[in-house]
Amino acid sequence: MISPTLIIIECKFILKNLGWFSLELDIEWYKIIIESVILSILIFGAVFLETWLYRKSEKVKENNTKKRMTDLIHTDLRRKIRFINDSIEYKDYKPFFTDVWDAVVLSGKQTLFSFETIENLQHCYSWMKYYNTEIQQKSQIDNEKTLKELLDEVKKSVEHSLRILKE
Description:
Blueprint: H1 4-18, H2 23-90, H3 99-107, H4 115-137, H5 140-166
Helix pairs in contact: 2-5, 4-5
């Protein structure tokens, strides 16, 4: 097998014997090759740096959004605990508003959280929706005991979700 280097040497020898090869021409080609390699390295480096900076800025945006979403959900869940305590204390059973979780899901931002966190929050808000359904379906006579038990379950679920969000 003939190597490319051997072919180049043979071509130079043939061109030199024919008088078509000069040392000046050879040096010019080396300059062009070296300049092309340097230019390629600069272009590759610039593209790599731009891609790296873009990924870093996206990661910062994701972290900021996740922090804001966590704060929003955490505040909402603390309000739910107060709502539950007030409902039990005054025996005034009203439905929960689950609009915060609905907004998080509709915006698609729940994917910023781990699967376990999403699963836990979904479970928590499902308890609230189940409680809302029970309020609408039950009569006022046997409703109080059932609703109080449901509120206790919802409270446990909310407290668990708050612990998970703190982690």
